[in-house]
Specification:
Blueprint lengths: L1 H6 L3 H9 L6 E3 L4 E2 L3 E7 L12 E6 L8 E4 L1 E2 L4 E7 L4 E9 L9 E7 L7 E4 L2 E7 L4 E2 L3 E3 L16 H13 L4 E5 L11 H4 L14 H17 L4 E5 L11 H4 L3 H15 L5 E4 L6
Parallel strand pairs: 1-3, 2-9, 13-14, 14-15, 15-16
Antiparallel strand pairs: 3-7, 4-5, 4-8, 6-7, 8-9, 10-11, 11-12
Length: 290
């Protein structure tokens, strides 16, 4: 019976199966990327890095138009021996990439290629050429920003410390879209115990402990997973991303100024490497409420 069903598959279903070779709006490895989407390369380190968050590795992505338009990005550590590098796929055709790292041979001198195909994605938000107070997306369409404050949409816990699962996040976005919302204003992370105004506790957004030497990957992975979901399932929704926490209302600058130069470099390099390729983001250094 099952073999008969397979033999009788309609053409439209065969076509759907064929398109599964595409990587979606977020693609990886040798999957086919989509124009105005994100493509990711995964690298494996040797396991010898004493401080993986301070390991400097880069990947140069060369588009079909040639080396003059190549983009070199940082790779970021994502636990174990895994590093990832991402590019905004701005051109159709065949891309190539090559890696470089002076301290880990597993991240150095690796290379590969992938194809990028046309899509209906809107691309990055850009200033409108006829009115700097308006926005346009990279495909030439006007973008009307109707924003909802959804602080904890990208977070593992809400302001009371209650877990927020992925389906809750999906349902929230579906309801916003039904009401005409086009962008969401979100914290990048939250703390385990819920929302509080405390300089020590706000560090739990990004750091594992008080040394500020290691980043809290569980928070960053949650935000990453939700952003990938948004790009794949709701690509027309923009995200106003609040990168850094406030210490108290109208005192947002205290977190950043309290970090050392090395801590700032470590954090910002990772956040840029992990999130900058997402076309739907527009960035807030901190909450702009005041």
């Amino acid at each position: 019976m099952h073999s008969g069903i397979v033999r009788c598959l309609p053409c439209w279903l065969l076509l759907c199966r064929a398109t599964l070779a595409l990587g979606g709006n977020f693609s990886a490895g040798e999957e086919t990327a989509l124009k105005f989407g994100v493509h990711e390369i995964v690298l494996s380190g040797t396991g010898g890095a004493q401080s993986p968050f301070d390991t400097i590795a880069s990947v140069t992505f060369t588009p079909p138009s040639g080396a003059g338009n190549a983009q070199t990005v940082w790779a970021f550590f994502d636990g174990g021996n895994t590093w990832r590098a991402r590019v905004y796929a701005s051109e159709t055709g065949e891309w190539t990439w090559s890696s470089a790292c002076g301290t880990d041979s597993g991240l150095d001198a690796k290379s590969g290629r992938f194809r990028c195909e046309p899509s209906r994605l809107r691309g990055r938000l850009l200033p409108h050429p006829q009115d700097p107070r308006q926005w346009i997306t990279e495909d030439g369409r006007w973008f009307l920003n109707l924003n909802d404050t959804a602080y904890f949409l990208l977070c593992a816990q809400d302001g009371n410390g209650v877990p927020v699962d992925d389906e809750d996040a999906r349902q929230y976005v579906r309801e916003d879209i039904a009401r005409g919302i086009t962008s969401l204003r979100c914290f990048l992370a939250s703390r385990r115990g819920g929302f509080t105004e405390s300089s020590a506790q706000w560090r739990e957004w990004h750091f594992e402990d008080g040394t500020l030497d290691r980043l809290r990957l569980e928070n960053l992975n949650c935000a990453d997973r939700r952003l990938q979901m948004l790009l794949d399932e709701y690509p027309d929704v923009a995200v106003q991303l609040i990168m850094f926490p406030l210490e108290a209302y109208a005192r947002d600058d205290r977190f950043w100024t309290a970090l050392s130069g090395a801590q700032r470099q470590r954090l910002l390099r990772h956040l840029v490497a992990r999130f900058a390729a997402y076309p739907q983001l527009f960035w807030l250094i901190t909450n702009d409420a005041h």
